[in-house]
Design a protein that fits this description.
The complex is a heterodimer. By secondary structure, chain A is α/β, with parallel strands linked by helices. Chain A is built from 8 helices and 10 strands. A 9-stranded mixed sheet of chain B has the order 6-7-5-8-4-3-10-1-11. A two-stranded antiparallel ribbon of chain B has the order 2-9. Chain B starts with a helix and ends with a helix. The chains are: A alpha/beta, B alpha+beta. Bound molecules: adenosine-5'-triphosphate and magnesium ion.
Chain lengths: 218, 431
């Protein structure tokens, strides 16, 4: 599914965030990425999603080398194959819950309500039915993260990347989210979740540890 | 996508409305400034036209006034000519007219037959013909110098019947005396008076008329001719009541006479009609001068209006050439600032859209379409507001329709491009 080879990322100011990382990830796995702060977890996720070009090395998703295609093709690939969740949710403040969830349609040049029916069933599933037309400012952190999750999987991407998705959540909401990830992986998709919490990591099929930009094989 | 844009506009309507106001306000001010210039031009034209019509009116008024005065004069002349006619003397052309005038008569003579010749002719300009023989002489008995004039009765005009003679006929052996000749001597009609040895019966004494007539004695022409051995000769023919209505009467009469008796010259003697004719000429020339004066004064005033208004216009124009670009620059800067603010607020949004796989061009178009909406609304507002205080020609309409979107797009382009061209990650970090 994902093939990472000799991936290095050196930020301006000679900050080495990733140092010659090579990794193969199979499809249908729920993977936890753990490591101390500043170890390069977010950087690894960003390079996997094509949001930032690595200094060297390659990332292949289903055989397509992410940084050998044009930015436009990369955008298309991301829109079709990758869903993303962030610690800070990153919902659009001016769209309501339903619209935030269907937002990925815009990237695919589809009308905003293209995924409306899927979104509605997801909203019911995520127990957000009473919030459907609310704006993010009025939602709790757990609700926000469920909306973000729904948005990330609305187009059924094969790869779901989550950067500390539970960082702002209480235990109950964390549990809900982890279970959603598990379910999503079970459907044959790959989920990579960055986390600091061992409890969360332990629920994953596989835990990858990273320190100073290097993988620690356990 | 439009849905997304409209939602964003609603969410950040302050920025949106301020952007529209920035463009519409500055453009309306520009249009207003231009309209002031147009208004000024219209005022200039109106004031010049006003002035022109004023001058024209003055001229027409002057012309009609002059015309009525001249017409009245001419009527007067015609009337007095009908009544009085005017008088000319025919003299021999052998003596300069100045000498004749100086002496009061001509020493050169004309054949008396001329009078008959004229009378028999079809001459229409002359009514009464009085052949005369005038000489200045010493009245020895009274020891004084007098004018002695021999007159015949009036010579009847052949082609006019029953013309009433205008002068009392003078019988041979009688004399008419001017005022100075009878009054001091106490002579009355019916008295006998001796002039240089010949006795005459006084048939008429004149009241005082003018200095020459007052010192004149009239005797019968035949007796006068005998006295001076000038039988068949006369010194002048007095033509009374000439009724020629044309302006150059003497010329008209001369033309007629020359055809009949070529060796005469004509003197017109003072009459009311003459004075009026002269007045007429004077009036008409004075009217011409006046007319010219009105025109030059009008032109001068016109010039003054033109130059002063041209100066004011120049300063207004220079204000415009300075003000309008300034306003446009202000609009542009304000819009750029507002756009930078908008972009800054939407950095996260750009990151999200990019993370979701939205192409850069599409994210950019979100900003540009928003700018276009701002521009179009601003254009509509500008045009509507402008129409409330000025007229817009087609060119101006086109400018006002296209300038606001253009300004909005240019102001948006760079800030939007700067945020959308960043690596998506950067826009998502540190929020
Ligand atoms: N845009 C950037 N420019 C320069 N340095 C960066 C940038 N992003 C990250 N870094 C640096 O790269 C290193 C790795 O950062 P990264 O965000 O990947 O770590 P992390 O493991 O996600 O940390 P955390 O657990 O705190 O989120 C850090 O030293 C960080 O300061
Ligand atoms: Mg991180």
């Amino acid at each position: 599914m994902i093939s990472i080879q000799n991936l290095s990322m050196i930020y301006p100011g000679n900050v080495t965030a990733l140092d010659d990382v090579s990794l193969e990830i199979e499809a249908g796995k729920f993977i936890a990425l753990q490591g101390p702060s500043g170890s390069g977890k977010s950087t690894l996720l960003s390079t996997l999603s094509g949001l930032v070009r690595p200094t060297s090395g390659s990332v292949k998703i289903d055989g397509t080398s992410l940084y050998e295609i044009s930015p436009a093709e990369r955008s298309v690939l991301r829109a079709e194959n990758i869903g993303m969740i962030f610690q800070n949710f990153h919902l659009l403040p001016y769209l309501n819950v339903l619209e935030n969830i269907t937002l990925p349609s815009v990237a695919k040049n589809l009308p905003l309500d293209h995924y409306a029916s899927e979104a509605k069933s997801l909203i019911d599933q995520l127990e957000l039915g009473h919030r459907i037309s609310h704006h993010p400012a009025k939602l709790s952190a757990g609700e926000c993260q469920r909306v973000a999750f729904a948005r990330a999987i609305i187009s059924q991407p094969k790869l779901l990347l989550a950067d500390e998705p539970t960082g702002n959540l209480d235990n109950k909401n964390t549990e809900i989210l982890i279970n959603l990830f598990k379910d999503y992986a079970k459907q044959g998709n790959t989920v990579i979740m960055v986390t600091h919490a061992d409890a969360d990591a332990n629920q994953a099929d596989q835990v990858i540890n990273i320190a100073d930009g290097k993988l620690i094989t356990s | 996508m439009l849905h997304l844009i409209l939602r964003e506009i609603k969410h950040r309507r302050g920025n949106f409305i301020l952007s529209i106001i920035a463009i519409a306000l500055t453009l309306c001010l520009s249009v207003y400034s231009i309209s002031l210039l147009d208004k000024f031009d219209a005022e200039t034209t109106a004031s010049l036209q006003n002035h022109e019509t004023e001058v024209k009116q003055q001229l027409t008024k002057h012309n009609t006034e002059t015309e009525t005065v001249l017409k009245n004069l001419e009527n007067d002349i015609r009337k007095s000519m009908k009544g009085l006619g005017f008088n000319v003397y025919l003299f021999s052309n052998q003596e300069p007219i100045e000498a004749i005038k100086e002496r009061g008569y001509s020493i050169k003579t004309l054949p008396q037959a001329y009078a008959n010749k004229l009378a028999d002719s079809k001459v229409v300009t002359i009514n009464h013909l009085l052949p005369q023989l005038a000489r200045r002489t010493e009245w020895k008995e009274q020891n004084r110098n007098i004018m002695l004039i021999g007159v015949a009765g009036q010579v009847p005009m052949a082609h006019r019947n029953h013309m009433k003679p205008i002068m009392q006929p003078l019988e041979p052996g009688t004399v008419f005396l001017g005022y100075d000749l009878h009054k001091p001597l106490g002579i009355k009609v019916g008295d006998d008076v001796t002039i240089n040895g010949t006795s005459y019966k006084v048939a008429k004494t004149y009241p005082s008329r003018d200095f020459r007539d007052d010192g004149t004695a009239w005797i019968h022409l035949a007796e006068m001719q005998k006295l001076y051995n000038l039988e068949g000769k006369i010194s002048s023919i007095k033509c009374l009541g000439c009724n020629c209505a044309s302006a150059d009467r003497v010329g008209t009469i001369r033309k007629e006479l020359e055809a009949i008796i070529p060796d005469v010259q004509i003197i017109e003697v003072g009459s009311k009609a003459l004075a009026r004719a002269e007045t007429r000429v004077k009036t008409s020339s004075r009217a011409d001068t006046m007319r010219a004066q009105i025109i030059t004064q009008g032109n001068e005033k016109m010039q003054t209006i033109q130059t002063t208004r041209a100066e004011s216009r120049k300063s207004l124009e220079s204000l415009n050439t300075f003000l309008i670009p300034l306003l446009l620059i202000i609009a542009f800067i304000t819009l750029t600032v507002l756009c930078i603010l908008n972009v800054k607020h939407r950095k996260e949004e750009v990151g999200i859209l990019r993370a979701l796989g939205t192409k850069t061009s599409k994210v950019l178009s979100l900003f540009l379409i928003r700018a276009l909406i701002i521009g179009v609304i601003a254009a509509v507002i500008t045009i509507i507001v402008s129409l409330t205080f000025t007229k817009l020609d087609q060119q101006m309409l086109i400018i006002l329709a296209f300038a606001p979107p253009l300004i909005a797009l240019t102001a948006t382009w760079l800030p939007a491009l700067s945020v959308t061209s960043q690596q998506p990650l950067n826009t998502l970090r540190h929020d």
